[in-house]
Amino acid sequence: MSRPMPRPTVAQLTYGSATVICSALAMLLLSQATSPPGVAVIVFAAFGLGLLVALTVPLPGRAPEQVASAAASAPVPAAVSAAPPARSPEDRIPVQRTVLAPDPVTQQARKAHPVREPAGP
Predict the structure, then answer these.
(1) Cα(first)–Cα(last) distance of the chain, in Å?
(2) Buried/exposed code over 50-64 (b: 16+ C-beta within 10 A; e: otherwise)
(3) 3-class DSSP state for residue 103?
(4) pTM of whole model > 0.70?
(5) CA–CA distance, 48 with 76 (Å, rounded to integer)
(6) What pLDDT, in 10s, does the model give residues 52-109?
(7) CB 54 within 8 A of CB 13
(8) Nearest 5°: phi and psi at 116?
């Protein structure tokens, strides 16, 4: 008894169709073929290229049902604490802070200068 042929995935259909369309248009535009035999050769070449791309798209590893059943039958690990491991004060890395002294030029520029406005008319 023969096994049924698997159905193509959405990715295979999408990549294969896009390849056929894009490659056929590109080859027709580049070759400027107008005769029916020339167009037929280009269409068959584009179809073959699309078929090749569709067959080389990686297939999913396992079906979601298989993953769910495998997860259900797996042993449950012991509870893991969410708290980080306790560290001693010696484990801490000292952080050096650099404090820049204020620039005297900038400090002078920040001082309020009197505003001189022209006297009235």
Answers:
(1) 109
(2) beebbeeeeeeeeee
(3) coil
(4) no
(5) 49
(6) 999 888 877 655 566 566 556 666 555 555 666 666 666 666 667 676 666 666 666 5
(7) yes
(8) -105, 120
